[in-house]
Write a structure and sequence with these properties.
The structure holds two protein chains of two kinds.
Chain A lengths: L3 E4 L3 H10 L3 E8 L2 E6 L10 E6 L2 E6 L16 H4 L3 E10 L2 E5 L8 E6 L1 H14 L7 H9 L1 E5 L10 H4 L11 E5 L3 E6 L2 H8 L4 E2 L2 H17 L9 H6 L5 H9 L5 H5 L6 E7 L5 E8 L9 E2 L2 E2 L4 H20 L9 H4 L7 H10 L3
Parallel strand pairs in A: 2-8, 8-9, 9-10
Antiparallel strand pairs in A: 1-11, 1-12, 2-3, 4-5, 6-7, 6-14, 10-11, 13-14, 15-16
Helix pairs in contact in A: 9-11
Chain B lengths: L8 E12 L2 E8 L2 H6 L7 E6 L3 E6 L10 E6 L3 H7 L6 E8 L12 E7 L3 H13 L7 E7 L11 H6 L2 E7 L9 E2 L2 H6 L9 E6 L2 H13 L7 E4 L15 E2 L2 E2 H4 L2 E3 H8 L5
The chains are: A alpha+beta, B alpha/beta.
Bound molecules: iron/sulfur cluster (SF4) (2 copies).
């Protein structure tokens, strides 16, 4: 399908088509002074005229001078909360006369349509696909949700000070992994299809052919995002750099700043660590195994044989950074970082992983 | 539908054998006869044993690799799950997922001399490999077991040593603290290993399981005796929750102990094995 044009006043037709197909539409909306992902019913739920300003340890919303609907970058939420829910029941057990009977709880699979997925987020979903779908074992919960999900991506037209997707080769342009991709212009959207499903959906929208001028304008706004990006991370030989410097003094220095609060791991769109808790009814006859997001910054995460393997902040920060940027490559064939900058923005003390890598590189052994 | 990797099968405790204080062997059988007929494992692999309402624990199989119908798990009381298990009797049911993980590549070393080095509760995960050697004794050269424990009464499976010796395995036990009637070695396994005659180090393979420090010094001793890191295999331990590489708990550097291990060739783990807090 060649690129087409959707008038801004017609965007609601996209939401209506998705809802008509039985999708639960989720997308950006303003809540508690941040742009978060939640259920969207109409265009009016979108963060019209808002933008986000981000710095290490800082995030705030500001009014834009225009009425852009997608004129922000990324917030504290990521799509992983839908594909890899923070709390799920993975198994159940019931006491019977013949002993324990084990089962997989039946769970309805929600059908999501994500609207407003950024290029770095497409990359993050790709990273989690490798973790949950492409190893020797498949996570059935992720798989069912992922297959039922439709993705409408939106190209960035600006970047935050914390973004470094160009260093991680993940953005800012959406190139794959979407059903539809939009580029927002003042009068409407350039619409591209990235799958058969997307092409079929587009055929039902009131599109007109995109003119040369529209396309040139789209190139220009997308280029603005590229030019906005200030942050860089040198990833040359980063695996050996980090795993070869496990005793670097910088880890000690980091331990004096990091609060081990887990924020970075919670906002990161690729972090996947979990723990399982037993939840019993009062009689103890029905037990559910609940899986919840966990973090390598939690003290008991490394519990073993009555002790803790990572019993100080130094070892926990080192685990987070070396896993994300180095051992992830051994494990899944790509970096665990997509350069979205969330961990920088939402760190209460503004620790910036790009700076930490640069510091280690400077005095590497 | 993809299989749910979290789903346990119900097993019944068929037999309990007390080993040493705080350690017992549980023979488990599947309640489902089809499952009971088809279950197989490789020496060195482990199962996740599940007590509903309490939790799961990763337990290596200590059974004969050709076991059919019931499978031995030698378990030390160490945490909530094993404490609760210790209160169960025969006939009680629990959950089992597995087998998981890599195995001792014992069958790849036909014609080689074999040294097993175990410490304390590290012997049970090696026992299936020892059984394999017993059954295929003619396929191997000289075979030695160096086994260390705190004291003579904490040596595991003492009733089996005579049979192992009769089948041509040299069994060298050593204890940290001797009792008056102890006539064997005293000291760490490495003291014994250091003086073990190795006729052909280039054709000797070493399999070790025990505490991290012990395996570290065992590997060091082996290297000093002319083995290469490629000839040393060890079984590593970390907290395991999912056993399928999806929960993140058991990482050691780039390795997921549950799915890349627990059995590793030493050269693969050496850069990360003894890094404090990794
Ligand atoms: S590590 Fe930080 S920048 Fe990289 S993907 Fe995670 S949150 Fe984004
Ligand atoms: S790096 Fe920042 S966000 Fe992450 S645990 Fe430390 S203080 Fe919290």
């Amino acid at each position: 399908m060649p690129a087409a044009f959707l008038e801004k006043c017609q965007l609601q037709t996209l939401f209506d088509a998705l809802r008509g197909d039985g999708y639960q539409v989720v997308g950006p909306t303003v809540s508690q002074d941040a742009i978060v992902y939640d259920e969207i019913r109409t265009v009016d739920d979108l963060p019209r005229g808002w933008t986000d300003v981000q710095e290490p340890g800082k995030y705030r919303l500001e009014r834009r001078e225009d009425d852009a609907l997608f004129g922000y970058v990324v917030g504290p939420h990521s799509w992983k909360k839908y594909l890899f829910p923070p709390l799920t029941t993975v198994a159940a057990a019931d006491r019977t006369d013949a002993g324990w009977a084990m089962s997989t709880p039946a769970a309805a699979v929600p059908r999501y349509a994500f609207v407003g997925v950024r290029a770095c987020e497409l990359a993050a979903i790709r990273v989690q696909d490798r973790v949950f779908l492409e190893g020797p074992y498949v996570d059935p919960i992720y798989k069912a949700r992922r297959e039922a999900t439709l993705i409408v991506a939106v190209n960035c037209t600006q970047a935050a000070a914390t973004c470094f997707c160009t260093s991680m080769n993940t953005g800012p342009r959406c190139t794959a992994g979407f059903d539809l991709a939009l580029t927002e212009l003042p009068a409407g959207f350039i619409v591209e299809a990235g799958s058969d499903r997307g092409t079929a959906l587009a055929a039902r929208l009131p599109l007109r052919e995109a003119g040369e001028q529209d396309l040139a304008q789209a190139d220009e706004v997308r280029e603005r995002a590229v030019n906005d990006i200030q942050r860089r991370m040198n990833t040359d030989g980063i695996r050996d750099l980090l795993l070869g410097n496990l005793e670097h003094p910088r880890w000690n220095e980091l331990a004096t700043r990091c609060l081990s609060c887990t924020n970075c791991t919670m906002v990161c769109p690729t972090c996947f660590c979990t723990s399982v808790t037993e939840v019993s009814d009062l009689q103890g006859d029905h037990v559910e195994r609940q899986r919840h997001w966990d973090s390598c910054f939690n003290l008991d995460f490394s519990y073993m044989n009555g002790g803790l393997v990572r019993n100080n902040v130094r070892s926990r920060y080192r685990q987070w950074l070396t896993h994300k940027l180095a051992s992830w490559i051994d494990q899944f064939g790509s970096s665990g970082c997509v350069g979205c900058g969330r961990c920088i923005t939402w760190c209460p003390v503004g620790i910036d992983l790009t700076e930490e890598v640069a510091a280690i590189r400077e005095t590497a052994s | 539908m993809v299989a749910n990797p979290w789903l346990s099968h119900t097993v019944r405790i068929a037999k309990i054998t007390d080993e040493i204080p705080g350690v017992a062997t549980y023979d488990l059988e599947f309640v489902d006869p089809v499952q009971n007929g088809s279950y197989r494992f490789l020496p060195g692999q482990f199962n996740m044993l599940y007590l509903p309402g309490v939790g799961e624990s990763a337990i290596s199989l200590s059974a004969h690799p050709d076991s059919r119908g019931r499978w031995a798990h030698t378990i030390r009381v160490a945490g909530n799950v094993t404490q609760t298990l210790a209160r169960l009797g025969t006939g009680a049911t629990l959950g089992l997922r597995g087998p998981f993980g890599s195995s001792w590549p014992i069958a790849k070393y036909h014609g080689w001399d074999v040294v097993f080095v175990a410490g304390g509760i590290g012997l049970p995960p090696l026992r299936p490999a020892i059984y394999h050697v017993l059954d295929h004794r003619a396929d191997y050269g000289r075979v030695t077991l160096v086994y260390g424990a705190r004291s003579p009464d904490t040596l595991m499976y003492p009733r089996e040593y005579d049979r192992w010796k009769a089948a041509g395995i040299e069994v060298q036990t050593t204890v940290d603290r001797a009792t008056p009637d102890w006539k064997g070695n005293v000291g760490t396994v490495t003291v014994v290993l250091d003086r073990l005659p190795l006729a052909r180090p280039d054709r000797t393979v070493l399999f070790t399981c025990g505490p991290d420090v012990m395996m570290h010094f065992t590997a060091r001793s082996a290297l000093q005796r002319g083995l290469t890191a490629e000839q040393v295999w060890l079984s590593a331990e970390r907290n395991m929750q999912c056993a399928v590489g999806l929960c993140g708990h058991c990482q050691l550097g780039p390795e997921f102990i549950c799915k890349d291990g627990p059995v590793f060739r030493y050269d693969r783990l050496a850069p990360f094995f003894r890094v404090e807090g990794l």
